Amino acid sequence: MSKHQFTGKRAIVTGASGGIGSCMVRDLTAAGVSVGLVARRRDPLEELRRECSANPGPTLVAPADVSDRDALNNAVKAIRDAWGGIDIAIASAGTYIRGLALESDPAQHLDQWRTSYLGVLHLFQAVVPNMIEGGWGRLGVVSSVDALSGVPKESAYAAGKAAEASLAGILRQELHGTGVHLTTVFPSRTDTAMTTSLQVPGISRKIEPERVARVMIRGMLNKRARSIVPFIGPRLLIGADIANTYLKDTLVRRFRLSGWLEDE
Ligand SMILES: NC(=O)c1ccc[n+]([C@@H]2O[C@H](COP(=O)([O-])OP(=O)(O)OC[C@H]3O[C@@H](n4cnc5c(N)ncnc54)[C@H](OP(=O)(O)O)[C@@H]3O)[C@@H](O)[C@H]2O)c1
Predict the structure, then answer these.
(1) Distance 193 CA to ligand 1 centre (A)
(2) How far is the CA of 115 from the centre of ligand 1 (A)?
(3) Residue nearest to atom 26 of ligand 1 (CA)
(4) Which residues contact 184 (CB under 8 A, 6 or more apart)?
(5) Among 55, 70, 90, 192, which is least packed by CB within 10 angstroms?
(6) Which residue minimizes the CA distance to atom 30 of ligand 1?
(7) Sequence ranges of the domains in the chain
(8) What is the CATH number of domain 10-254?
(9) Over the stretch 206-225, which tens digit does the pLDDT of each residue have?
């Protein structure tokens, strides 16, 4: 990625060790952005740090569980102490659990929401007040098309992503006029470790994480409120859902859009 208005800025990316998060780290450091890398496991973060070491933007590894507010605050402090501030914060940490709503363990739903919903809240509560003080900031949330129109076996995941997207949409409005802008990206199934074992029909092939990363960074550069990736497929499904929910349900069943695991 060439130089742009983010060059020289300081960023934090959660979920940095994984598919979409790590692609954003590569793009941002290539553009000369300093990036603090957050995820629970240190080793993949160190590996990414080594991989990006030739890029103009430096990296700093700050492992934390985003559902643990104190741990995340410590990671934010380490990054802020190192660079004197944080201008860009992107929430990409997430996990995916799957199962029929009536048969699933409520504790697993809570775990999912702690990472997706609380993870975003913790991050933004830690970084946004200083951005407002400085009059400039860019926030990014990697939500999911599931947040806009969910499919069977993804109740815990979709509800967590919807809560996260709802929080993001409200925060964006609350930040109006502060100089801090928030972009939410809604990707469809993406080819990362999260979905390795999930089979999907040809009609809704997994997209590349690099593409989602590019859409996020472009969206933040252009102060877009939200982007759905890819452009057409999910919009057709969301449109069908709005026009006639039974049409959407039929399309989901007919094309097996909820995907399947080997043993399902
Ligand atoms: N893959 C898809 O089909 C898809 C589609 C739409 C949206 N998304 C969203 O995209 C985001 C990134 O997912 P991905 O596809 O890139 O999956 P991924 O490769 O599995 O990456 C997930 C990242 O989140 C981190 N993470 C998970 N729980 C965490 C926690 N409690 N605290 C801190 N970090 C945590 C993981 O690292 P550690 O395990 O080391 O913590 C990893 O870095 C997620 O929010 C996901 O919901 C994914």
Answers:
(1) 8
(2) 9
(3) 93
(4) 140, 141, 143, 165, 168, 169, 172, 225, 226, 227
(5) 70
(6) 65
(7) 10-254
(8) 3.40.50.720
(9) 999 999 999 999 999 999 99
